[in-house]
Amino acid sequence: MSGAFSFEERERRVHSILAAARRLADSRDPLGQEARRALPAATGLSEAGVELGLSAHLETSVSPDALAQLIARAGSAPSVHVVLSANVFVGAVRAIALALAAAPSVFVRASRREEVMAPLLHRALREADRGVDFEMASTLEPRPGDEVHVYGRRETIDAIRASVPQGVRVRAHGPGIGVAIVDAQRDVMPRAAALLAGDIVPFDQRGCLSPRLALVAGSADEVDAFGLRLAEALEQRQQVIPRGVLGEEERHELTRYRDTMQAIGKYHAGSSFSVGIDLAPRGILLPPTGRNIHVARLEFQGDLTRLLGPLRAAITCVGHMSASPLAALAMTLARGARGLPLGLMQRPPLDGPVDLREMV
Amino acid sequence: VRSFIEASVSGRVPAESFDELGVAILTYQAEHVPAYQRLLARSGRHPADGADIRALPAMPSEAFRLARIAAHPPSDDVVVFRTSGTTAAARGEQALSTTATYECSVIAWGRWALFFDEPKPLGAILLAPRDNPDSSLHFMLQRFAARFASSTHYMQTTATSPIGASALERVCEGAWRAGVPAIIMGTSFAFVHALDALGGRKLPLPRASRAMHTGGFKGRSREVSPSALRSQIAQTFALSENAVVGEYGMTELSSQRYEATLRAEQGLEMSSARQGVFVPPPWMRVVAVDPESLLPVAPGEPGILRFEDLANVDGALAIQTADRGRCSGGGVELMGRSPGALPRGCSLALEDLLENG
Prior knowledge:
The complex is a heterodimer.
Chain A lengths: L6 H19 L4 H14 L3 H11 L6 H11 L4 E5 L7 H12 L2 E5 L7 H12 L6 E2 L10 E5 L2 H10 L5 E5 L3 E7 L5 H12 L10 E7 L2 H21 L7 H17 L1 E4 L4 E5 L13 E7 L2 H8 L6 E6 L4 H9 L4 E4 L19
Parallel strand pairs in A: 1-2, 1-4, 2-3, 4-5, 6-7, 6-11, 7-10, 9-10, 11-12
Antiparallel strand pairs in A: 8-9
Chain B lengths: L1 H8 L8 H15 L1 H10 L15 E2 L2 H4 L12 E4 L10 E4 L3 H15 L8 E7 L6 H13 L2 E6 L8 H14 L3 E6 H11 L11 E5 L11 H12 L6 E5 L8 E3 L1 H5 L11 E3 L4 E6 L12 E8 L8 E11 L2 E7 L20
Parallel strand pairs in B: 1-13, 4-5, 4-6, 6-7, 7-8
Antiparallel strand pairs in B: 2-3, 8-9, 9-10, 10-14, 11-12, 12-13, 13-14
Helix pairs in contact in B: 1-5, 2-3, 5-6, 8-9
């Protein structure tokens, strides 16, 4: 198989899906226009939120180094069956790229909640007619030796693991969160707040890299001020990229998060975001998705281990502004997490799955 | 509060009404519990303004994990109960400056649900260790044993040690031979461990014996549905299913809810005596509220549960949980946790935080 499915062929297949993605990113392309029409309803994002995803977060190119890493991480199988999640619509490109790099035969099952991206990419590949393709599948029928790449909720992953025949390898990419580390001694706080707001807004924070927690080292006043700056930055972003529709669970959780933070800390909320600040944290309260961020103060370095320790397995990404000892410690704790600069937490290089925890 | 409890369980009219006492306690808490002060300030309401208790904000149960919710300084603590947990995550706490009210509530409602017929003698078999000072459940079991039992057997060495089948067999066989009824009590997952250790062996207990189990399973043992667990406990110890009583408690509260099945079985008619329906005491109100507006839903409709517990003098009288349930006919039917909320209680405080990917 290695001769027929050479490294060069794998590269070609990845480039083909990126070319398909470029059509969707292009607002003048009929497929790009169709994506813009259909995605707001399918994702719950605002039109501007969809545009942000397509124009700034959809992978359309790859560096040679990243591509080599992606191919290495993709592995090899006769067939890969991809089960997509609905949360981050651009994730279809990376998931399909990995599958195309891994196997000559690829089947893609879209989420019932988001059936736009994968079919559009499928059409783009067919129209390109370069001999690179995948099948859209409504069922999952792997055979021994195949791989299933599943993206989504823990329940989905568990159900698929339980249902596949023996000899099928399931590579699962489950839920996770991004964590931002900010250090008042080293970082320019207003800049850090602005960059972090830029990481919270895409996909209305529903991605597994989306920051839900910011640990801020500094005095109580500095952390308080950072929280306020972050609220201001989120308000500014809201003017340009309005939040989409919150789900029922998100609204319910937000009520609880609001009341809890009003009781134990501080809470700043705008029309489409909230910032909870805990200046003396005993533990972490994660806010719901939908542009809500929990800011907790780190008074001592040991606080980071204490607060982050219980969450370590869930952390997919550590965002930081400077290469501080705190960021390094967070990376050590969250083994397998990506380390990314603030402002780029939602734009990791196309060097493998966004969530690298499965690779550890 | 203790007078209210004693009057209400003995059928007398308390000197003060629930609302009068409740407003007085909330006013005290508004003055002395900083977290409640902040909640009230945000809501623009205050108990001293004559507001209906139900219109006043309730402390979210998560707050007990993140901050001290107490009207007294730590130096006045006589006990701090903590939610269970196996991880390094912060645990919810209830700090008490006295256990007198807690104990009064526990004994009064335990007697109502489990010991109303006052069987004597009675053996207590606790699927628990002798010492577990953090646990409000353990405190309660110890008080039950001290008040209602003539002998007490602990089935664990420590909170994490296994329940030995041979020790359990010895105690149950001893009770059977002596003809002394027993009450066997523990968390649901402790019962599951005990049943697993017994491997299907039956340990019949004498007539008039009973069992009490509490809490869920998440993360601690294999999961068993409440009805299956009830059935297995009943079969193993030769009890009727109605003699297997479920308790629904929370570390953050000072009063418990029980299934009234044992009372019903013994002829004390109860409109809400169904399995899976938990009855609160007269000094506690439970209401299901809409998860977004936090306004009460219609009786019988599902919502998240808000508790108003007069026995919670030292912390927060009104607590808003994420437990889903419905209230009707004086009982509460549980429907699981609100999606996204942290699991809590005797099941454990495992993080199951993340549903997004």
